[in-house]
Amino acid sequence: MVTYQPRILPLENGDRLSRSEFERRYQAMSALKKAELIEGRVYMSSPVRISHGQPHAYIVGWLAIYHAATPGTQLADNTTVRLDTDNESQPDVLLRIEGGKSQIDVDGYIQGAPELIVEIAASTASYDLQEKLQVYRRNGVEEYIVWQVSNDVIDWFRLRDGEYVKLQPDSQNVIKSEVFPGLWLAIDSLLQYDLAQVIETLQQGIITREHQDFIAIITM
Known about the structure:
Largest sheet: 6 strands, mixed
Number of strands: 14
Mean pLDDT: 93
Strand order of the largest sheet: 3-6-9-10-11-12
Order of helices and strands: HEEHEEEEEEEHEEEEEHHH
CATH superfamily: tt1808, chain A
Structural class: alpha+beta
Strand content: 25-35%
Radius of gyration: 18 Å
Number of helices: 6
CATH class: Alpha Beta
Distance between the termini: 59 Å
């Protein structure tokens, strides 16, 4: 007797799905590199242009150096994050504290909100600054960076009392993380793709006493 196996439908942009059905269809599409479920709706990415790939790589490089100097943190690129029953995102880059707000499920996915998420967005019209921002806020992502490439704008949001406020740069136009001490970002240098200066500024943050105290706390 032949057992009928229902066909697994492919994901389509705009599909309204439960998280379990989203995962079932996503796993069946082995060639698909990125898809997200935001407020129960499927978003699928287009082929990646250099205008996205280069800033993405620079953010990864910046955070990789911080991670290397900060035991107790975990850095991930394009990794699925299960936030709630209607939201499963795949952030461009994330940085989390091991043993912090999020954990790794038995099947290897992140469950819960990482402390820092970074997204590369085309402009203010992107859902990174609309629906996704509200999802991250509601689920408790402590810091959220959005680089609007076409507008030459980098926004760094900090969660305070359940709402996102923008962190302000100092007189040198450097923004300093409140969640990850020593994580300093030279905004002007990054927008000019001057990675050497971005790294030099970061290294100044890494050698501070605040950064060393932070390591002592998260590695206890």
